[in-house]
């Protein structure tokens, strides 16, 4: 793996993070390939294509409101035209009473180099579950 490629992907992860925190849906979607396939911890089992994922991101941004995402333990593996980054993230947003709530999830983004640069072709967010109750574990922490 080239340190240059790894640095490019780390810069993209940081730019994606800043853009998500800023809440600009058009800028967020610029990181994704038109044919992205995404798995998220909430709502639908999978999102196929940028249009479907855009709708989901719009709902996520409404939920987040003045919330944020904080990344922890970002790891990158990369080759010349394919890369993957994984991390733990803490996502927060206001509940119905306006109080901030947060929890950790696990994130993975797969990038492919294209003619105009790197794009996310697959993204996956998940959260641990208690197998006995089938409920998400919101208080898990790294």
TrEMBL record:
MF annotations from Gene Ontology: isomerase activity
Superkingdom per UniProt: Bacteria
Gene3D superfamilies in the cross-refs: 3.10.450.50
SnoaL-like domain boundaries: 9-129
rRNA-binding among keywords: no
UniProt xrefs under SUPFAM superfamilies: NTF2-like (SSF54427)
Keyword vocabulary terms for this entry: Isomerase
Keyword Isomerase: yes
InterPro entries, per the entry: NTF2-like_dom_sf (IPR032710), SnoaL-like (IPR037401), Steroid_delta5-4_isomerase (IPR011944)
Identification of the protein by name: Ketosteroid isomerase
Source organism per UniProt: Isoalcanivorax pacificus W11-5
